[in-house]
Structure formats: structure tokens, C-alpha cells
Amino acid sequence: VLMPGRDQQMIIPLGVGDGGQVVSWQPALFPHLMAVGPTGTGKTVFLFGLIISCLLRGWVIVLLDPKELSFRGFDPEALVGRGFAPWGGIVSVATTEAEMEEAIGFFHSNMRNRYAAIKGFEVSEDDLPPVLMIVDEAGELVERLNEYQSSEEKHQDLQDRAERAGVDAKDVAKPKGVK
Predict the structure, then answer these.
(1) DSSP 3-state assignment of 14?
(2) What is the reported pTM?
(3) What is the DSSP string of 49-115?
């Protein structure tokens, strides 16, 4: 595998098109990317290639996996637990509702902090590594998180979080289904 040069950090090859031309994603110009197709057409395999291309470029990646099995080969905890080195750059592979909510919160906080640092001239956009969130099966993510918002599991998770923060769990109100 050839390591991409500095000038290739924001050009991600996706495949080969007509006439043998390499088709690339340029997130600086088009920051969003969606892979759509029927089951079994290779969307997840495509995402594996995208993830590896971005990791080779030093990107930070958050993976949300509501199917719970798609990204297990990138899960830092699972890899270390089996004696393998984790992929550098993978922040998390979130599979539970609580993990997915936390990963979205991390991504949002990171984005707000980056915007503030750029706005305050503390850094330039070029000084920061790109941060990418990949969701495999967005529809399932939305469905699971909507159900989770008013569940007993969410209430228990909030109580556990309160206890870890030194707050009495009895003071935690039951969630009312905020989406």
C-alpha cells in the first residue's frame, strides 16, 4: 500500500470509473457521503476501504454500528483483547444505544471545540486532522435511539452515570422520550 502524500490528504479514492479513471471523494468540497444499495451489494465492504483510506491519511474516525457486527474488525477493545494492535485513529466502535449516543456527543463536542478554536484564530483548519463519523444503517440507528430515549435501559444508564459522577441515582428523572 502506498502511503498518500501530503497533497493527497483530502482526496480519497473510491473506485475506478469509465475509462479507468479513479473516482475520488473530496470532503473539503463535498463533506457528506452516502453509500446506498440493496442488501449484499457491497456497501459495508466499500466502507471498509473508505475507513482504511482515511486512516492512512491520519484521520480520526468514529464508527456507529447499530447492526453490531459490521465494524467489529476495527473495535479497539476487541482487538486489544485478542492480542492485536488497534487501528490508530479509531476513537470508538459504538454498538449499544448508550455507546452510540456517547459517540454522537463526542463528535458534536469535538466539532464545536474545533469551530471555536478556528474562529478564535488558535489554529487553522489545515492544522486539524479530519474527523469522520460513519454510520452503517442510519435507519436502524434512528429507530434504536428513538426507542431508547424513553426506555428503562436509558433510565438505568442515566442513574449509573449519575452514580459515577457522585450524584444520588434517586435524583435522576425518568426520561420522557426526547429525540
Answers:
(1) strand
(2) 0.83
(3) HHHHHHHHTT-EEEEE-TTSSTTGGG-HHHHHHTTPPPPTTEEEEE-SHHHHHHHHHHHHHHHHHHH
Q: How many CA atoms lie within 13 A of 125 on its CB side?
A: 5
Separation between Cα atoms, residue 155 and residue 98, nearest integer Å: 11
SS3 170: helix
Rg (CA), the chain: 19
Q: Is 3 exposed, middle or buried (0-12, 13-18, 19+ CB in 10 A)?
A: exposed
Query: Model confidence over 53-80: pLDDT tens digits?
Result: 999 999 999 999 999 999 999 999 889 9
